[in-house]
Design goal:
The chain has 284 residues and is an alpha/beta fold. It has a domain at 38-170 and 233-279: Rossmann fold. It has twelve helices and eight strands. It has helices at residues 10-28, 48-62, 77-80, 89-94, 101-107, 131-144, 158-166, 178-191, 215-222, 234-243, 254-267, 275-283, and strands spanning 35-41, 66-70, 109-110, 116-118, 147-153, 169-174, 200-207, 225-231. An eight-stranded mixed β-sheet has the order 3-4-2-5-1-6-7-8, with helices on both faces. β3 (109-110) and β4 (116-118) form a beta hairpin.
Length: 284
């Protein structure tokens, strides 16, 4: 049941409808549609794109049929994968009136391991789609892919809030510095204004132990439960980005194991998990 205060706007009604229908679908047929994982920065430069790209690669390696959606206002996900997309999310939005699964796939750029990227806007100032258009696009995506990973980067607007409401989990990426944790609390407040705060989980990137600082301190400062800690492997990450390769290619490395573990933590409750996928997590 939804209660909407007057006066209201079209976006308010749409967000309420998304929350209601998402809840109904979960009750009616849990797991029948793909799951969305949205990754957002606490502040610029803390690693949302790195987390989104490598989480998507880990899920693709384990399960297949994964889409990575670059929602950033100036997308970089393609650079992380050394891909040169012919189309972007703007093309998919612009063709919603005739979009089916075949046309959707034609707008995707496929990596060598089969991950499908819907690239972000590659030039600033491009006209912004409406939240209703994003809702229609994601309805198509979750009916076509098993997992949809969204790189929202530092984008904080109605589109990010809408996609967060559609998500199984929202990964709020930050560091352990004061500015990052302060910003994380404000981002959580923004995303939680339309409900769903419980879906937002904190991911600490470039994590290193700090004397006198605990996980409980991070949770208290942000208001979000800590989901995962990614080790501080700055040079390995920088080198991978420069080469356009995923960190998952660094087999048996600490950071590859970390992303495999993150993917496992997000999917461990899925009823349709295959044993083959679990074996991959154990060997990375």
């Amino acid at each position: 049941r939804e209660f909407i205060e007057r006066p209201t706007t079209t976006n308010d009604l749409l967000e309420a409808f998304v929350r209601l229908t998402t809840a109904q679908r979960k009750v009616r047929r849990e797991g029948s549609r793909g799951k969305v994982f949205t990754v957002v920065n606490a502040k610029g430069g803390v690693g949302a794109t790195t987390v989104a790209v490598n989480l998507a690669v880990a899920l693709q390696s384990a399960y297949g049929n994964v889409a990575l959606i670059d929602l950033a206002l100036l997308g970089h996900a393609a650079l992380h994968l050394n891909l040169k997309p012919l189309f972007t999310i703007s093309d998919a939005i612009g063709n919603l009136h005739r979009l089916d699964s075949s046309l959707l796939e034609s707008f995707m750029t496929r990596s060598a391991d089969g991950l499908q990227l819907l690239a972000g806007i590659n030039a600033p100032g491009v006209g912004e789609p409406s939240t209703s258009e994003f809702a229609r696009l994601f309805d198509m995506l979750v009916n076509h892919y098993r997992y949809v990973v969204v790189d929202a980067s530092s984008r904080l607007d109605g589109a990010t809030r809408l996609v967060s409401n559609l998500s199984e989990s929202v990964l709020l990426v930050g560091h352990t510095d004061v500015a990052s944790l302060w910003s994380a609390a404000r981002v959580l407040q923004f995303l939680g204004e339309t409900g769903g705060r419980e879906r937002v989980r904190l991911v600490l990137n470039r994590f290193r132990k700090i004397p006198g600082f605990s996980e409980a301190d991070a949770e208290a400062a942000t208001g979000a439960k800590l989901l995962w800690k990614i080790p501080n492997q700055y040079f390995a990450v920088s080198s991978a980005i420069d080469r356009g390769t995923s960190l998952m290619e660094q087999n048996h490395s600490e950071i590859a194991r970390s992303f495999a573990g993150l993917a496992q933590s997000l999917t461990q409750d899925d009823e349709q998990v295959k044993r083959a996928a679990w074996s991959l997590f154990k060997t990375v």
